[in-house]
Automatic annotation (TrEMBL):
Name this polypeptide is given: Transcription factor domain-containing protein
Gene Ontology cellular component annotations, sorted alphabetically: nucleus
InterPro entries: TF_fung
Keyword Metal-binding carried by entry: yes
Lineage: Eukaryota, Fungi, Dikarya, Ascomycota, Pezizomycotina
Length: 329
């Protein structure tokens, strides 16, 4: 859609090829007449790209995702965009801007997605080792990116890192934290538990990193007021679901009780379901799983793929959707 509207030409080529033949579908928009409309189109383009990137985290098939290059036009600062009555909502100060969010989604998160589109035979020890090493490498990239962002917020606000983590500093920071945790769990969950005909075992590092990411997701949503969470950006839904799913599937595998934090995640999903149909569907799945995860697999009512962590959230979506539709009929 962004290409058809001519938005990609504006962002990538700075509009320089508007007077030349295009191999792309016909453009529906002319050059923006002023800077305000140009900024609107810049933000519309990146919002579309963010939607593509965020909604496909964990996908194991090839996707035409976009990463940021040095020449791309990025959104202006939120402070500038909200001046002169352009917006009635002033961003918190300090805050991370929409540009920071774009850079995260099309930078570190993009690298995770490109990696997960590669084919690995996790039953092969050499390929499994390659996957584990790459997970740790990308995990370090995500952690470094977040740490640098937190440091910049600390300097701007003269706060300590713990205060920044608790305060959140706006929707963009909340989304970055949750998406980073979503990416960590999506990478590591496939190798956290290994089931085979001969052995079942846990890779402690992967399991612990998933649990760390779940804990940070819980801390993040705990900082959001109930009313605000019920109207929050839908990009957070899969992050919350993936965190809760890992706790329940991990508890089912180990035979242990799921930690109390799973209740917070299910409650958060229930709040999100007040507005978003996807959250309503996934909340029902989580409630069912919370009631049955301690039972034997033969008695599960929800699809078995829910408990198989080799499947990502997007992999099991159709199976969960079919289960939900049947349960509602």
């Amino acid at each position: 859609m962004g290409t058809q509207l001519g938005l990609q030409d504006l962002i990538v080529h700075h509009g320089e090829n508007f007077n030349s033949p295009s191999s792309r579908p016909p453009r529906m928009l002319s050059l923006p007449p002023n800077l305000i409309e140009q900024e609107e189109r810049v933000r519309a383009y990146w919002m579309a790209e963010i939607l593509d990137n965020v909604s496909t985290v964990g996908a194991s098939w090839n996707l035409s995702l976009v990463s940021v290059t040095e020449s791309d036009i990025l959104p202006c600062s939120d402070e500038v965009w909200t001046m002169n009555g352009y917006s009635d909502v002033q961003p918190p100060n300090p805050s991370i801007s929409f540009t920071n969010y774009v850079e995260f989604v099309s930078g570190p998160l993009y690298q995770v997605q490109k990696f997960m589109q590669q084919k690995f035979d996790l039953n092969s020890l050499p390929e499994r080792s390659l996957w584990q090493n790459k997970c740790q490498e990308l995990d370090e990239i995500l952690s470094t990116w977040r740490a640098n962002l937190t440091d910049s917020l600390c300097k701007a606000s003269q706060s300590r890192p713990g205060d920044v983590a608790r305060a959140g500093f706006g929707t963009n920071m909340t989304l970055v934290r949750c998406l980073a945790n979503f990416a960590v769990i999506s990478m590591y969950q496939r190798v956290s538990i290994h089931n085979s005909q001969h052995t079942n075992h846990i890779w402690p590092h992967a399991a612990q990193r998933c649990l760390d990411a779940v804990g940070d997701t819980c801390e993040t949503v705990r900082c959001i007021a109930d009313k605000e969470l019920s109207w929050f950006c839908p990009f957070i839904i899969c992050s919350v679901f993936t965190a809760a799913r890992f706790l329940l599937a991990y508890a089912a595998f180990t035979g242990n009780e799921a930690p109390p934090s799973v209740d917070l995640l299910i409650y958060s999903m229930r709040l999100l379901s007040q507005r978003w149909p996807l959250a309503k569907r996934l909340a029902k799945v989580l409630r069912a799983a919370a009631l049955e995860y301690k039972a034997t697999a033969s008695t599960y009512t929800i699809p078995l793929q829910f408990y198989n962590l080799e499947y990502s959230t997007i992999d099991i979506d159709e199976a969960l959707k079919a289960w939900y539709m049947n349960s509602e009929s």
